[in-house]
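Practice set, problem 2.
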Amino acid sequence: MEFSGGAGTVVGNHYAANFDAFYLDAGLPLAVVADGMGDSAGSAFAGRASVEGFTETLRAAAAPHSPAALRQAVALLHDSVREFARDHPGLAGCTLTALVGDAAGGAWVVQIGDSRLYRLRHDVLELLTSDHTAAWVGLLHGWFAYESAAARAARYRLTRYIGHPDAPEPDVLHVSFRHGDVYLLCTDGVADQLPYEQIRETLLTPSSAVDRLLAATLTAGGADNATAIVIRTG
């Protein structure tokens, strides 16, 4: 199996700086996106340190593809972000979504927060991750409508994130690669601003999908930092 991919990010029109972070090694593949919570120094540190720490921990692990190693990598990130928060005022935390290729023709997915992983297979776009937000729970159980004020407010209430006082574990799942699969890792600056069908149509031509997705977020208003990684199997 061979892999190709691209990655990018835009600041948007709401924040003066970019609090997203990402890493891509398409050859493995290894892809990570993180989204800092808010616009504090803790937000900037959490996103950057989580992406760097996660990739460094896996590269040093004896069995980097095991669920135990992936959970341990996240546990170390909790420690790092909470240690920073003790000496700096303001919120310190971030989301993290990762795709970690293995030697068996598949990949492990690590999810904590509300960044996302999508897969396009045979023209069908599927969301492979769940958002760890009060909005996700409320929408699943019919507590409020998708576009209601209550749902919009609940999207900012993360139930799991890096730096959480309880150090929650991430979701860890395995996916098998097939030729022609297209994977999209993105922060909520992409997922919240672009509708499902627009994301699907963009991924049908994966070679330029990152640039077109990010440009579309600016056209939609640029309400948040937006980061996208696209990986195609071949």
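Problem 2, part (b): a different protein.
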Amino acid sequence: MPHDIVNGHIGHNHAHDHLHSHLKPEDEASDLQVLTAQFIDGFVQAADKAAYLKLAGVPLERPGKAGDSALKLVDVELTTEWQVGTASPSFGSRELSYLPFPGEMIRERTNMSLIYVSMDEKDKLDIRTFLANKERG
């Protein structure tokens, strides 16, 4: 198969066009954070939540772990967290190094999960996982 060299990257010459992402992992994480925030904002503001999920490609059913029954989407869970400080391991000690944030550094974070159930199991799919898989997809 012929190869093209574009911007220093070797690629295949396909009959169809597609783009390849060459972002650094930290850039991908930042992009995912922005995409997630926009997705959540859109869902919250949507007049028709079911239509929003459908347009976004959120499946109403997913395979279960056992594979013999499908999980059904029953809930969308939004949680709000406020990071008021940070804690990390201290060098040479079992104590955590704790840094409380001053008021202006405290930020709100909203997370979203898709809740799927069957007669035998319940699964929470974090929206970041869904969006990351959709981007790779």
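Answer key, part (b): The mean pLDDT is 83. The radius of gyration is 21 Å.
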